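Researcher: Next entry in the queue.
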Amino acid sequence: MLVLPDRDSAEDLAEGLADRFGVMEEPQLVRDALAGEDDAEDAQWLVVVEDPDGRLAPAALDDFAAEFEGWLEAP
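Model: Structure for this entry, 75 residues:
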């Protein structure tokens, strides 16, 4: 799961996963409102990437997310 600061970043990262890592399945985007926050501006976005075969290197995903001001978070 990759955590991004906003929807635009999450969408851009999701689009780039196919080019960078060959991810063929479209990742799931999920809005993750911060505790006690109702404002959409205060929401993080999660990009859920399925990798049942363990092909994707966690460090590489974390570096890629960092390009969008995000990070990799273990499920």
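Model: The radius of gyration is 12 Å.
Researcher: Noted, moving on.
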